[in-house]
């Protein structure tokens, strides 16, 4: 690389990677979504599938979240679905 040439652009991620990162960022904005829950979703069904479950209001059925949503798991799932409805879908 010479000083007069701009640096090369980094390689572009594929569409699947873009969707995964968009879903992961959207999940991170949900109320009550902490690092442990976010990591469990990322490692479990994956961010894209987790976002779909959140948007549908069925996140409390995801095995990786069992025991991680508190006493009112269906209520937390509903709150996430309501919040997800206000976010541009990834």
Task: Please give a structural write-up.
The structure is a single chain. 50% of the residues lie in helices and 0% in strands. It is built from four helices and no strands. The protein has helices at residues 15-28, 35-43, 47-56, 73-84. The protein is an all-alpha fold.
Tag the structure with descriptive keywords.
90 residues; mainly alpha; elongated
- Major β-sheet annotation: none
Q: Please state the average pLDDT score.
A: 89
Low-confidence stretches: none
The run of helices and strands is: HHHH
Write the layout of secondary structure elements.
Elements: H1 15-28, H2 35-43, H3 47-56, H4 73-84
Helix pairs in contact: 1-3, 3-4
Brief overview:
By secondary structure, this protein is an all-alpha fold.
């Amino acid at each position: 690389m010479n000083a007069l040439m701009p640096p090369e652009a980094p390689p572009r991620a594929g569409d699947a990677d873009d969707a995964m990162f968009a879903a992961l960022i959207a999940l991170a904005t949900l109320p009550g979504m902490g690092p442990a829950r976010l990591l469990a979703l990322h490692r479990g069904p994956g961010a894209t599938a987790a976002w779909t479950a959140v948007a549908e209001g069925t996140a409390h059925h995801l095995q990786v979240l069992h025991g991680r949503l508190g006493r009112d798991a269906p209520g937390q799932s509903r709150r996430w679905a309501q919040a997800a409805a206000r976010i541009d879908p990834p």
